[in-house]
Amino acid sequence: MAKKPLIGICLPNKGNFFAELFIRFNLYLSGARSVSLRANNHISKDKIDGMILSGGSDINPVLYGGRKDAHNTKLDKKRDAFELDMISYSVKRKIPIFGICRGAQLLNIFFEGDLYPTILDFDEYIIHQNSIFPIKDVYVKKKSKLFDILKKDKIKANSIHNQAINKVGESLKVTAEHEGLIQAIEKRNYPFMLAVQWHPEYLFYIKEHRELFNDFVKACNEKKN
């Protein structure tokens, strides 16, 4: 019997317990094994068949040409550096990458894009709600990998972020939006590189969000074999 693909989950050195738990649960449902990758412990990186960039703290604004004070949470510069190295490592080996929230933003920065340091930098009058439950309409572009996975041009998603993608990175394509804010990016001509601004790991009870993990694990299986 073939071994299940091994997915590396990039995480901070401390915290993100629930995010890790729910991501692992989704990967289990999709038929994959998982391992945590942290700046202080990433000895398993050579064994992974796919990588997830999970959510978390704001990204150091210096990395995208922002003001040093342009952030709302405590920075984790060590994590930023580690995960940028992991993206580079994975891209060189064509390892499938799935970005979640902060992960989408960091992937965009890797490809020389930048961010709105806060949602209010996009629109100071926007009423931005945060909830772990699906509260916002996400409009999906039809000619995209995301649409191929979801089979829908509109879905409900949750919203747990205070930063957003501004200028899109080189060779990345915007594939979903909500009220003008970018909600998904992907890269063409790559086994699987898709990143979403919401947190599908908490929405495992909705088929469309499970399908994101299913398709990602499928790509990891193909890479492994």
Structure description:
The chain is of the alpha/beta class and 225 residues long. It has helices at 17-29, 77-92, 102-110, 119-122, 145-150, 207-224; strands at 6-10, 33-37, 50-53, 97-100, 115-116, 131-140, 154-159, 164-165, 172-178, 181-187, 193-196. The strands form two sheets. The protein has a nine-stranded mixed β-sheet with strand order 2-1-3-4-11-10-9-6-7, with helices on both faces. It has a two-stranded antiparallel ribbon with strand order 5-8. The protein starts with 5 loop residues before the first strand and ends with a helix. 44% of the residues are buried. The model has no long low-confidence stretch (mean pLDDT 91). Keywords: Hydrolase. This is Gamma-glutamyl-gamma-aminobutyrate hydrolase.
Condensed summary:
By secondary structure, the chain is of the alpha/beta class. The protein is built from six helices and eleven strands.
Number of helices: 6
Number of strands: 11
Question: Distance N terminus to C terminus?
Answer: 13 Å
Order of helices and strands: EHEEHEHEHEHEEEEEH
Return the average pLDDT rounded to an integer. 91
Calculate Rg over CA atoms. Answer: 16 Å
What's the shape?
globular
| Main sheet summary | 9 strands, mixed
Helix share, percent: 25-40%
Uncertain ranges: none
Can you lay out the helices and strands and say which pair or pack?
Blueprint: E1 6-10, H1 17-29, E2 33-37, E3 50-53, H2 77-92, E4 97-100, H3 102-110, E5 115-116, H4 119-122, E6 131-140, H5 145-150, E7 154-159, E8 164-165, E9 172-178, E10 181-187, E11 193-196, H6 207-224
Parallel strand pairs: 1-2, 1-3, 3-4, 4-11
Antiparallel strand pairs: 5-8, 6-7, 6-9, 9-10, 10-11
Keywords: Hydrolase
Pfam families: Peptidase_C26
Organism: Malaciobacter canalis
